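Whiteboard transcription, Tuesday session. T.W. wrote the structure tokens on the left side:
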């Protein structure tokens, strides 16, 4: 049991790639044997991720050609969609287990993929064997899998806010609002990521409909016509606060909702319920999960008992990406589910 699982990370120069490197540096059962980059092959990892210099003192990025030649047991793909699917296909043919972070294997249907990502899926035949990468939804299927998908960070926040109500069939409609930090857009400089332009703005990135809605519909079993999803970029680097305004199918009491949320989340190692009091802690704030794989969920009910706010907070780079990916990989590889992920949030941050 002392032998560690060999891991290669593709897209290791990016934000989620950096988080995978950080987590695995202290993982008791995984060891990074390759960090792949097209643009930085030969460069020390610490030159791109200065905070990781001490953990990867003697390791340089390697090229995709070198990465393809290393026989690692487990591969994480922190690549943009489409590039991820093409790499996954090759890694699976080489007999490696793959955990993807991109959108390529999240949706079950190639038609839905085409509709939401406006491109043909490069390997639709793999969609059926991919398990959606949220252990809180698909833990059992992960142990025998060889391909686990990424999760949309906004979709993840919506799932944690709404799952107990959705499972109980109580949602008539939900208006999901996600307030998100700039790291959601990745490390590459692009229109909209300039500090001068983005800082202090409240930019509504996608009014009403966001791609991650496809995952919410699929994973929560809600009808598309009954939900909307608006994403607003706010003054954060990391973090998502999801606030879903829900009309309930029937009148409920607060105690009913507490019961549903406790039943759903109390056994989950990374999920906590926000307290009812004091009032300012009732609706989850991403500040309290920053830098960790933790999730906060909470709710408030209007006096009429039919309108509720269901909410959650996550760190997009962790529970919304690299953290869930490692948690899923732990299950797939037969390790302790929480291994490498027990770091507490940074506060204040
Ligand atoms: N950021 C988030 O909060 C978040 C949350 C959930 C899921 N995700 C998903 O995770 C994946 C990575 O996101 P990220 O935020 O880490 O992105 P990122 O910071 O832009 O990093 C992606 C890395 O992939 C490599 N790359 C870019 N284009 C490529 C291409 N065409 N072919 C091969 N490699 C390419 C680049 O490295 P080199 O140029 O060095 O090769 C880049 O550093 C994306 O699919 C994203 O949707 C991100």
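and on the right, the sequence the group agreed on:
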């Amino acid at each position: 049991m002392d032998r560690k699982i060999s891991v290669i990370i593709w897209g290791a120069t990016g934000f989620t790639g950096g988080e995978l490197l950080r987590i695995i540096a202290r993982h008791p059962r995984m060891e990074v044997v390759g960090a792949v980059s097209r643009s930085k092959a030969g460069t020390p990892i610490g030159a791109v991720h200065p905070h990781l210099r001490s953990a990867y003192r003697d390791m340089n990025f390697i090229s995709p050609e070198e990465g393809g030649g290393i026989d690692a047991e487990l591969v994480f793909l922190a690549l943009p969609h489409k590039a991820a699917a093409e790499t996954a296909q090759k890694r699976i043919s080489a007999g490696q287990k793959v955990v993807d972070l991109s959108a390529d294997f999240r949706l079950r249907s190639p038609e839905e993929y085409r509709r939401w990502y406006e491109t043909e899926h490069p390997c639709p035949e793999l969609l059926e064997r991919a398990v959606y990468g949220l252990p809180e939804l698909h833990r059992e299927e992960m142990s025998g899998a060889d391909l686990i998908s990424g999760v949309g960070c906004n979709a993840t926040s919506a799932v944690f806010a709404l799952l107990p109500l959705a499972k109980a069939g109580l949602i008539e409609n939900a208006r999901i609002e996600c307030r998100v930090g700039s790291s959601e857009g990745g490390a590459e400089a692009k229109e909209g990521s300039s500090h001068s332009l983005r800082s202090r703005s409240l930019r509504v990135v996608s009014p009403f409909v966001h791609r991650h809605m496809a995952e919410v519909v699929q994973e929560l079993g809600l009808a598309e016509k009954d939900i909307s999803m608006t994403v607003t970029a706010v003054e954060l680097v990391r973090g998502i606060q999801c606030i879903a305004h829900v009309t309930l199918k029937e009148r409920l009491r607060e105690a009913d909702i507490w019961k549903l949320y406790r039943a759903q989340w109390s056994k989950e190692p990374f999920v906590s319920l926000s307290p009812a009091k004091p009032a300012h802690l009732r609706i989850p704030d991403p500040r309290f999960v920053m830098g960790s794989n933790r999730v906060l969920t909470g709710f408030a009910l209007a006096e009429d008992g039919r309108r509720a706010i269901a909410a959650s907070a996550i760190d997009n780079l962790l529970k919304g990406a690299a953290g869930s990916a490692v948690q899923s990989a732990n299950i797939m590889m037969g390790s302790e589910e929480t291994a490498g992920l027990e770091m507490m949030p940074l506060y204040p941050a």
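Someone added at the bottom: The two ends are 37 Å apart (CA to CA).
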